Amino acid sequence: MKIVGHRQFIELPGTKTHQLPPLFVPGRIQVKHLDRVMRMANELVESEQLIPICPGIDPAVDVELERRKTDLAVNLVESYLAFVAHWRWGDSILEWIRQCEITFEAQAELRPLLRADVWPHAGRSSFVTLIEDKEVPHPRIRLDQAVGLRLTFRQPPPLACFSDQFLLYLNSAVAISAYRTWAEMAPGPPASLPPERFTFDLIEM
Questions:
Q1: Are 167 and 80 in contact (CB under 8 A)?
Q2: Cα–Cα distance between 172 and 21 in angstroms, integer?
Q3: Beta bridge partner(s), residue 2
Q4: Which of 13, 79, 90, 110 could bond 167 through an S-S bridge, CB–CB 3.0 to 4.6 Å?
Q5: Could you tell me what percent of the chain has a pLDDT over 90?
Q6: Where in the chain are the domains?
Q7: Of 108, 151, 112, whose CA–CA distance to 128 is shortest?
Q8: CA–CA separation, 115 vs 21, rounded Å?
Q9: What's the pLDDT at 69?
Q10: Whole-prediction pTM value?
Q11: Which is it for the CA torsion 152, 153, 157, 161, positive or negative?
């Protein structure tokens, strides 16, 4: 292991730069049924009684309450779409890690770096760190949160399955906790892959 600052890096034999599989990242979300998603959000606002109900007291108050309900529903939809965007990135990253493992297994000098385990292999966070070290652009996406959500959810559930508390406050904490638990399951201290020894292409889907 090579220690640089507070980080440990895996030492690779030779000076060869290794080509990894391309990382296919998701493009912008195209919502086909935004009206349906908005309806789910409105139903969530109503069912959880997030806005107090006091009809008939004052027409102006009723109008303000309806406006607040709409604003809250829009916030829930935005939070849900951000959740889906993170999940899609996490799904792409885990698939990329799987392809990288195949590449490592096929090369004698890289094969000893990976231990056999059950997929998704715990401690493969070194590949996530490699994406960050290579400064792959990921606008408004936290990679640890993205991978954590994908580890938690096999498919992104519809908005109606979530509570307002999860969408507004808890989803990032749940995702980051899942990621850290997964990353820390690796035996021994975490070690990073040297970014100067690896290269890969970024392809937007």
A1: yes
A2: 29
A3: 9
A4: 79
A5: 42
A6: 2-33+83-204
A7: 151
A8: 20
A9: 81
A10: 0.85
A11: negative
CB 192 within 8 A of CB 11: no
User: Which phi and psi (to 5°) does residue 140 adopt?
Assistant: 60, 25
Count of Cβ atoms closer than 10 Å to residue 90 Cβ: 28
C-alpha dihedral sign at 117, 123, 126, 128: positive
Q: What is the pLDDT of residues 32-60, one digit of tens each?
A: 667 788 888 888 877 766 666 655 566 66
pLDDT > 80? residue 25: yes
Query: 1 pLDDT exceeds 60?
Result: no
Q: What is the pLDDT of residues 163-193, one digit of tens each?
A: 888 988 899 999 999 999 998 887 766 788 9
Measure the CA angle with vertex 154, ends 150 and 157; round to 5°. 95
Closest CA to 164 of 38, 50, 37: 50
| Per-residue three-class SS string for the chain | CEEECCEEECCCCCCCCEECCCEEECCCCCCCCHHHHHHHHHHHHHHCCCCCCCCCCCHHHHHHHHHHHHHHHHHHHHHHHHHHHHHHHHHHHHHHHHHHHHHHHHCCCCHHHCCCCCCCCCCCHHHHHHHHHCCCCCCCCCHHHHHHHHHHCCCCCCHHHCCHHHHHHHHHHHHHHHHHHHHCCCCCCCCECCHHHEECCEEEC
Q: Quick check: 159 and 40 in contact, CB under 8 A? A: yes
Length of the chain: 205
Q: Is the Cβ–Cβ distance between 189 and 3 less than 8 Å?
A: no
